[in-house]
Structures are given as structure tokens and as C-alpha cells.
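Form 12-C: Joint structure prediction
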Amino acid sequence: MANAKTTNILDTGVKLVRNVGSFNFGNGAVVDLAIHVDKRREIAREAGADDRAVYLVDEFFESSEGFVSLLGSRHEDHVAYVGTADEPTTDSIDKLTAKLIAKGFSNPATIVGVGGGITLDTAKAVANLLTNGGNAADYQGWDLVKVPGVHKIGVPTISGTGSEATRTCVMTNKKTGLKLGMNSDHTVFNHLVLDPNLTATVPRDQYFYTGMDAYIHCVEALAGSYRNAIGDAYSQETLNLCRKVFLADDMMSTEAREQLMVASYLGGSAIAASYVGVVHPFSAGLSVVLGIHHCVANCIALKALGEFYPEANKEFLKMAERQKVLIPAGVCSNLSDEQYEALFKGTIVHEKPLTNALGSDFREILTIDKVVALFKQM
Amino acid sequence: MANAKTTNILDTGVKLVRNVGSFNFGNGAVVDLAIHVDKRREIAREAGADDRAVYLVDEFFESSEGFVSLLGSRHEDHVAYVGTADEPTTDSIDKLTAKLIAKGFSNPATIVGVGGGITLDTAKAVANLLTNGGNAADYQGWDLVKVPGVHKIGVPTISGTGSEATRTCVMTNKKTGLKLGMNSDHTVFNHLVLDPNLTATVPRDQYFYTGMDAYIHCVEALAGSYRNAIGDAYSQETLNLCRKVFLADDMMSTEAREQLMVASYLGGSAIAASYVGVVHPFSAGLSVVLGIHHCVANCIALKALGEFYPEANKEFLKMAERQKVLIPAGVCSNLSDEQYEALFKGTIVHEKPLTNALGSDFREILTIDKVVALFKQM
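Section 2 - Result
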């Protein structure tokens, strides 16, 4: 019966896969973005609708002179820089959506998200909210988004999260402690511009941590019990590419940055057809309770979770050593009992990935004592 | 300057990749087809349009009692069985389109193509013609299709051609001898149902020849000069899957059929982001002049083209031996001079793939004597 239960809880919405509509790929591809935005303006004008665009851009680019006009923005468009000190919360999404409506951008021709996972997820969530109404928290879960969001274009500037390809946009609900996205076909980007040139200026540590998100996704997916041939193929190729990148002398060579951008996209496609495992729930606990960002939290978690993923743990440590990147240590060493309990709760709530990894009896393995002991090693 | 010319001729339409909209994957997924067709009927009804569907089905299934109703067809729909004795011609596409119009199906809610490359390509071509008007030959080439075709759903029943994922539908123009598809974003399927169960009844030889189409595509793509990281990744994983399938004891086990269906889809995605090489032009010559079907023609060609692809040639022969499949021999041994000249012309016309493989000076390598000598070995 354990098998039957496993199948049941993991059956939701994975058999049908929605692809990103289309994408441009290549160094310099970002110059094509303006063409795509202009096409959307034309379609909007023909329909008698608002032909202005909204640009949500990682704050990193705020000081880059001329960057936004390179992206095809016009003075009548709205450009908002997205802070990356904190990951998206249901509150931050609600506030940004309200701000756009207040400024008259309730139905723009397109929303262009330019940045890492935080910015891309923000663009996806806001696009859904503008057309569906209500609050972000209403849509945390599976297939709760009722109608298509505003047309949206994703332009990743760092590789690894796979947000550009997935049907989710992760947000933390500070009230409930729940870190969960709007898992929906409507969350998928209509178009992507994949330009590896954009990742040349990423700090090395961040480049590594974020790239590892793709690696860890796929390690978890391939070790899970919910598998299918297409998810496996995407995961396998993502791992092959990550090995090429992170076992190379320079993970940031032109070739490596191209490969990692592909790995991120394929890793996201893998996730769309599979589930994560033990690392992501622990990582989510670190994010929700301690505010540690997703990608570095993944790395901290995988380092301590060698008993669940022995080979990947070893390979990952070798990659970090090769690229001379330090994984933060001691982040959970001196916490209060309440914090440890919160970490446990923030981990164990992720039933789907834990069932995928450990079966429906995962609570018998991940007791509170066991989970706290693992966190204390992080 | 050779490089500049190579870049130029190969630059057309590859940087932008259109994905299949969505897909169902898994054994038994075909039962979901009716749901998708019914969704299209509903959308058509809401728009006051024709809510009937057209089913184009491989003639193989004509005798399978109840198969078409399993696919969700209703008595008011139009079901046409597609013959597979000959590959699609511009004439056959024109005739089928005229027939559909005559029967009142000029704008159906969706066209469902169920079969192999012939049937899927037929569905794609007819869908384009119904909305664009004119004749099939008008659209042979790159980006000549002006408006989106009728909505279309692909259901492959054999794996390898990648037609389910590509932006082309190959047709032979008997008047000009040109074998070339409607290469267009509008040619891409809106939805796929990928059900590996459907391939269980394919004859072993045909299963091998067709599967090899994916393998050969990707061998050619990875050996070419026009490369990019995303095409490479798709090609690499396609080859990995083909090796698992064709070097296994039984290429038609449940697991192998699942893997080959994924390989076909990813191989098609690879082609969308790259070019083929020397094998496909020779194979096209065999098809145009001698009427040999595409997939077996590929195998015949690769067997004789070891000097261009030495490792793949060896691996391919090993796969054929392992699966106990014979590659036809002597198909060009006793032809007339006119036929040899036609074979040469039918090969050398494929400038893009030959430039990709051999550079813009390919005619200096592939002289008529050389090409005829190679055909005589087939």
C-alpha cells in the first residue's frame, strides 16, 4: 500500500507538461528582446489594449547606464528594480502588484523579468496576480491559478534556478511560514531570451551556489521514486553539463557559461516533469527560519545530507574545492529550541518531495530529533 | 572568408526556437487525448466556430476496432487514414487539403495527427495550408508560412523522426525533385500526446530504422560547424538514450520504448536548434530518385558514409547486429546514368546541411564522381 500512497500524493499535475513558448539563445541574443516586446506592443494596439510594457529588473543593473534601453524599454513603460536582499514573499508580491495597478499598469502588453530566480519568480507571480485578482497567498499550491497571466518574457542573468522553465514561482508566506509557489501552467513564461553574455559579471560564489541549484534539483529527481523517462533525460543531461562546468578549470569561461545556461533551462524542464527530494525541504527550512537564500541554502543542506545522497555529496564537495568556493558552515549551531522546532516544521511540511525521496513513511525517518541533528551539522 | 560564408548561409531562423506548446507523457497517456480535443471543441464553440475535429490516422490503425473512438472522435468529425506506401508529396498534401475543404472542414477545431513521420508531417502541412491558402509547394523553404495553421495535436505511434518536435514537415515536389519542408514556427504542434504503449506493435525492422533517424540527426548535428550549446545538449542526450535502447538486449522492452520516445522528441528539439550533415542529403537523394523511405534510406546512407562519420558508422553497425536488423544493400547497383545524375542532383541541392558538415566549399569534396561512387556502395 505504501506504493499506492506514493503514487497518489505525487500524481498531481506532472503528467501534462507545459513548455515555454519560444526562446532566443546565444551570446548577444538580448538585442532581440526589443523585437519581441515591440511585437507584443503591436498585438496590444491592434486589440485596442495598453501597449506599454513593465520591466522588472534585478537591482544589480540599476547603476548600469543604458541597460534598460538596450532591453527595448520606452519612456512610457514602467521600470521597477527588484531588490534581492530578501527572496519574494506573498506580501512583497501583493505590494508590487498593487503599485503597478496604482500606476495604471494593470494590463501591460508584456512583463519582462530580467534577473535571477528572485526577479523571474516575481515577474511570474505578478503576471498571474494582475489577471487573477486576490492575493498571492491565495494561489500558493497546485493549479489554483484560474486564468492565464499577463504575457511575460524571462531574461535570466544568472544560471541555475531553472525558474525560466518551470511552472512555479516560489514565495514565502511570512504568516504561515509556508514557502511554496503558484504551481500552474499559467506560471510558465511565454518567451525567454537566453543570453550567456549576461552572466559574465556574476560574483563567483553566487555563480557557483546558483548553478548548484540545477545540479541538486536533478540529483534529487533521479534519486526519487516518482520518475519518468522524460524527466530522467532532462535531469541526466543537466548533470552532464554541470559536471562539464564545475569540474572544468574555469566554471566561468565563455563555453562554461553557455553550458550552465542550458543546464539551468533543462534542469527547470526536468523539474516540470519530476519532483525534488530531501535537500530542497531542508533548504526551505533554512530560508524560512533563517532567511538564508535558496541556492546557498541548498549547498549548506547538501553538504550535511551525505547519508541520503552519498555520491552527489562527494562530487559536490569536489566541485566546490575545484572552483575554490566556500560553503558557509555553522549557520545552525546556536539556535533556540523554538528555532530548531521551526526548522523541523519548515522542512517536514514538504510532503511531496519527501515522499518522492523517502516514501510515504518519511516521518518515521525524519523524526524531530533526526532533523534537528542534521540541521546542527549545517 | 569561408567562415563568414558558412555563418551566413546557416544563420536562417535557428536562433529563435519555438517549442511544442505542451505535452502528455506516459504509458496510457493517449486516454487524455479526448480531453484535449474536447477543450478545443469548447474554445471553438465559444468563438462561434466549427467545433468538429479532423483525425489523420496512419492506415495501420484502420483495422483496429475502436481505436479512433479511443482517440475521442465523434461521428460528426472527419477521420482520414493516411497511406504510408509513399512519403508526402506537395501533390498529396494539396489533394488532402482540397478534400477537407470540399467536405466542409476548412477550419476544424483541431487536427489530430496519429502515426509516424508521414502522418505527423501530413497533419502539419495540411494545418498550414488550410489557413494560408495556395499550394504546398508555395511554402517549401524557410519562414514562408504567413499565419498560424489550424490548431494541431500530434500523437506519434513510432519513435525517431522527431517530427513531433520540429518546425518542418517534409514533402517531395515531384515536378522539381525538391524534398523540402515548410520550415516555420507555425509548423510546430500545439500539443503532443507521447504514449510509449502505442509503439509496442511496430515491426522490429521499422522500429530500428525509424529510431536511427534520431541517432543520425544528432550525430550529424554534433559533427557540424553550426553548433550551439542548447542544440548540443539535446543531441548529446538523444545519443545517450539511443545507445541505451539499441545496445540493450531488447530495443523494444517497455523501458526502451519509453526512452526511444523521449529520444525522438529531444532529437527533434535538437534539430530545431541545429542542422543535419552529409547523411540526410544522400538519404534525400535515395528517397527522391528511388522512392526509398526516409528512415531506411538514412541507414543505407550512413552504412556507406563511414569516411565522414567513422565512429558513428561503427557504432551503428554494432547496433544493427545487436538487434539482428538487416540494412538493405545493393539498392544503387544497376542504375542508369540519368538515375545517377538525378541522385547527385538530389543530394547536392541540400546546401545548408552540406555547408554545415563540410564548409561552403562542399562541392569541391562532393564532386559528381565522388557522389556517384558513394551511391554505388549503397
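Section 3 - Comments
Strands of chain A lie at 16-18, 22-25, 53-58, 78-82, 110-115, 141-142, 152-156, 170-173, 178-183, 191-194. DSSP finds 15 helices and ten strands in chain A.
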